[in-house]
Amino acid sequence: MIMKCLFPVAGYGTRFLPATKAQPKEMLPILTKPLIQYGVEEAFAAGMKNIAFVTGRTKRAIEDHFDVTYELEDQISGTSKESQLDDIRELIAICTFSYTRQAHMRGLGDAILTGETLIGDRPFGVILADDLCVGEPDGVMAQMVRVYEKYRCSIVAVEEVPIEDVGRYGVVKGRQLDDRNILVEHMVEKPAPQDAPSNLAIIGRYILTPDIFEILRNTPPGKNGEVQLTDALQIQAANGKVIAYRFQGRRFDCGSVEGFVAATNFFFSCRKDAR
């Protein structure tokens, strides 16, 4: 069973300035719940109870969120508002949370390598909280765990995107194994549309085998001078050890204002329908 999930949360969130000037973008709320909590709940639902964060400066609010706030709890104890903390209380009670800092912003690959001290030598999940996913019927990470149990190699979640948008993603191409699984043969980070091997884009969900750390240590900076996880995964793919999984569900790119608004509208409509 995969027990650990890594959350790289050191980025600045510049697309949401000035809202993110003094607070983490991962703490921006979709309705009444911050983005990061949706991600941790997805990991927990997949059986991952050890939650690891690679943080940076100005990210203390994330640590505080996954901790007991005695003054607040005392103030609302016995009131109707107390039930609003039920979900976060469950996570705090059952999960363990650990933190390390990425001193310099050197790309997703470097962030994951920074998290090695928290992960160790076992397979682990990675969730990018910017990508808010609604799985059908199970969460995306829970779906990916089942894929890992079958293939026992690194798994990346993918979806088709418009060809003009491929420059925002890692893009894969490979051999179709079945309706949802592709044995990756080639991947490239943020290609120009004319250079893209396909329009299958990697989204912010991964299961990685621990050999990825040694590969990342030897991966030179790539696109934008950053250590790219896609470049390291290409090394694994060359050995037939990466599966791209077409997940069941819907993704909202909450790293963009448009995606953030779409997610808010979606969850609000779900809440209205539940009444």
Walk me through what this model shows:
The chain has 275 residues and is α/β, with parallel strands linked by helices. It has one domain (4-274): Spore Coat Polysaccharide Biosynthesis Protein SpsA, Chain A, CATH 3.90.550. Helix content is 33%, strand content 26%. The chain has helices spanning 35-45, 60-65, 70-76, 86-94, 108-114, 116-119, 140-151, 212-217, 229-238, 257-274; strands spanning 4-8, 29-30, 33-34, 50-55, 96-101, 124-127, 131-135, 154-160, 170-176, 181-189, 200-208, 242-246, 249-253. The protein has a five-stranded mixed barrel with strand order 8-11-9-10-12. A hairpin with a 2-residue loop joins strand 2 (29-30) and strand 3 (33-34). The longest helix has 18 residues, at 257-274. The radius of gyration is 18 Å and the shape is globular. The two termini are 37 Å apart. The model has no long low-confidence stretch (mean pLDDT 92).
How do the strands and helices of this protein lay out in sequence?
Blueprint (H helix, E strand, L loop, with lengths): L3 E5 L20 E2 L2 E2 H11 L4 E6 L4 H6 L4 H7 L9 H9 L1 E6 L6 H7 L1 H4 L4 E4 L3 E5 L4 H12 L2 E7 L9 E7 L4 E9 L10 E9 L3 H6 L11 H10 L3 E5 L2 E5 L3 H18 L1
Parallel strand pairs: 1-4, 1-6, 4-5, 8-12
Antiparallel strand pairs: 2-3, 6-11, 7-13, 8-11, 9-10, 9-11, 10-12
Keywords:
Spore Coat Polysaccharide Biosynthesis Protein SpsA, Chain A, globular, 5-stranded mixed β-barrel, 275 residues
CATH topology: Spore Coat Polysaccharide Biosynthesis Protein SpsA, Chain A
CATH H-level superfamily? Spore Coat Polysaccharide Biosynthesis Protein SpsA, Chain A
- The CATH level-2 architecture is identified as Alpha-Beta Complex
SS summary, helix count: 10
| Unreliable stretches | none
> How big a fraction of the residues is strand?
25-35%
Query: Which whole number gives the mean pLDDT?
Result: 92
Query: Helix coverage percent of residues?
Result: 25-40%
Q: Calculate the terminal CA-CA distance, rounded to whole Å.
A: 37 Å
Report strand order across the widest sheet: 8-11-9-10-12
Compute the CA-based radius of gyration: 18 Å
Compressed to H and E, one letter per element, the order equals: EEEHEHHHEHHEEHEEEEHHEEH
Shape: globular
